[in-house]
TrEMBL record:
It holds the Pfam family DUF7089. It comes from the Archaea. This is Uncharacterized protein. InterPro entries: DUF7089.
Amino acid sequence: MFTARELSSPVAAIREEHAPDAVVVDCDRDFETLAPAQAEDLGLLVDSLEPATYPAAWLPEDAPELLARYASSDFTVGMPGDGSITWTHQTDPPTVIVKPRVEGSPEPFLDFLLAEALVEVGLEVPEHFLGFFEEEYRNLEQATALDPAGTYQIAAALYDGWTGLHTRDVFAAWDEDGTHPELADAWHDAGTRLEDRVSGLPGAVARGETDFADATELACAAIKHALELPAPFDALDTDAYRDHGPDYAVTWAEKTFDALED
């Protein structure tokens, strides 16, 4: 089910710099969450497996079933919202998994996605928002007053934005010091493609063309590209969010959703 992936020179250099022990594999089928039996096939490529578990008290009673399974002792790899490439610290060494859906993507963009995953692995940030929010996830649910799927989407977006505040310094350095020009160009290009959509978010939400959870997802995805964000998302592009993480995210959600109701 998994085969070792040959890396381009730029991506191999990023692995050497940020996550030299990481294993990068192709998966032969698309997935959001791998069944435990399939995930355990990773054991053939790594030294050991150590499933992550989280306290049930962190979850609201109506949490999505997949999130409850992720928090349990089941070996769960990949979750909705992970995108075309996911990674896990539940293997030793950590593993980056490339899904078949990347087929047809421009090679420079794919290299950027791989490099981004390796940078995240090296930063040792949580691999999922539950490890970021911890017990604050319940408070986030209360702040948003959304259904379980909506809360999940907002949480995943906010975590993506917080991670982007850490990774974009690395991406910007590729450009500033000229060490990885191909990856820097791909980073800029991906940001340019988002720019018009992000600047138009307030109008799209006001016209009902985009719901607020989708808007949050797009805005938070833009943070790693250092794009200028419209209000209220610009409050997430701050050192305060980078430093205070989940507490700040919950406060932002409380203020934002209170304003939406007024």
